[in-house]
Amino acid sequence: MPHFKAHFPGSCLLALAFMATPALADVGIYRGVDANAKSGLASLAPGQFRFNPDLSTFNDPALAPVQKACNYRFTVVLQGAPAVGAHGPVQGLAGYVATFDNNPAGHWGIAHPADVTADQAKQAVSDYAKANRGNVVNGTQNNCN
Question: In terms of CB atoms within 10 Å, which end of the chain has fewer, N or C?
Answer without folding.
Answer: N
